[in-house]
What we know:
By secondary structure, this protein is of the alpha+beta class.
Amino acid sequence: MTGFLIDLWTRSPVFRLTGCAAVALLVAMLLHRAIRVLLWRWSDDHPMVRDMLRFARAPMGWLVPLAILAVVLHARPESALLAPVPVLSHGLVVALIGVATWLAVRCVQAAEAFFTRRFPVDVADNLYARRVLTQARVLGRTASVLIVLLGLAAALMTLPLVRQIGASLLASAGLAGLAVGLAAKPVLGNLIAGLQIALTQPIRLDDVVIIEGEWGRVEEITGTYVVVRIWDERRLVVPLNWFMEHPFQNWTRRTAQLVGTVFLWLDYRVPLGPLRKELERLCHEAPEWDGRVCLLQVTDASEHAMQLRALVSSGDSGRNWDLRCRVREGLLAFVQASHPEALPRWRGEWSRNAGAGSGGGGSTSRQSPEGQRSPHPEDGAGNLPGAA
């Protein structure tokens, strides 16, 4: 048996090449496993390295064998004697480029996962965490897109025909370059917008924004679009470059604290003193109030009623919405129970002659007061009775 193997080794280049490749693969697998165990133990105090090891496990399992096979095919002299070896070598190079691209993308994703765990946004004061996480998310997505494009370009450039086409495009860089630029304008525009958002940060993850009249929170920022979660669980998908070209409201640009408004239309006979005391009582009893602002003012007056505006503050927009609803309901209940005469009324002048001319009924038609609502964007702003 030994003699047969030695004779086969001497006469068959395929057997020698296959045997060398098998031995090299076995050594590479053992070396890869040993290095992985050592790095895993060393990464106990380095969480980012551990994340990268965990994310890179699959691509590294392919990268090491492919690299060893490529080295063996280029190093062994038997490769020049076999016709399929050049084709196999080219396939291994393309596979190596693909696996290396996969590995780089997984490392970027590992960095994103590390920052996501390191800076949680489900805390009270999450402004710094949202800033860091937005930069990590947007820059990571942009880097992943660039890595994939570079990997695809490197794989295509291994083909002689593609290299010739690239040289022709470079030689005629006028019209062809303009055509390529126009075709790639949406992709490049989103990439540049992503870099601008990551660096200047007009929006961040979990920001409260108003876009096209819709109130919502920034739920996700990708390399091409932003997902805004509307208050009724709908999702608004907005392209990245839209934020660079259109104005929008960001309620949490500097801080999550907000001052909300509650508008009421009441009769002129309402006593403002007891109403202010009731507002203070409601704010002190409300867990959503942060203790900063609690104010009641008369902001407008018409021929039928006057407009009262209550200002209340909270730590974030969600609490402020609940506080405004609580204050509105409490003030209306107080007026209904203690001062029903202060509800809006329609006033008119009754004339005896007018009553006789209408058939002696002596009655006039009355109109019910118009509905009350807050002109806040979250409530659906609209024209109020008597508003300027």
